[in-house]
Amino acid sequence: MQLPPKVTDRAFARLAEIEAGAGGKALRVAVEGGGCSGFQYDIRLDEPHPDDLRLEGGGECVVVDSVSLPFLAGATIDFSDELIGARFVIENPNAASSCGCGISFSM
C-alpha cells in the first residue's frame, strides 16, 4: 500500500490566510506530463471532486486526483515564503531529478 501525501501545518495555515475553504475551494495538487523533466506539478485552487483524496487540516483541504496519487505517494506538500517568492512546494521522494524551478521532475 502506498503512503498518501502529507500536508504541513504551514501549507494549511497559508490556505487559511487566503480563506480558500471559506470560498469552497481546496488546493489541488496534480501531476501532468510535460515540463523540462518529463512531469510537472499543477497546483491551483479548485473545487474538490467526490473521487479526490482529501487531506484536511485547520478547516482547509488539499485534494489529489486518483491519476496523480501514485506519483505523489509519500510526498510532502508545504508552503515556502522566501525572498525569491512565496509558493506551495512539493518534496517528492519518487522524483529521480527535478529542474531548478521545482515544478518539473522525472521519475
TrEMBL record:
Domain Core, residue spans: 6-102
InterPro entries named among the record's database cross-references: ATAP, ATAP_core_dom, FeS_cluster_insertion_CS, HesB-like_dom_sf
NCBIfam families cross-referenced by the UniProt entry: iron-sulfur cluster assembly accessory protein (TIGR00049)
Name of this chain's protein: Iron-sulfur cluster assembly accessory protein
Organism of provenance: Mesobacterium hydrothermale
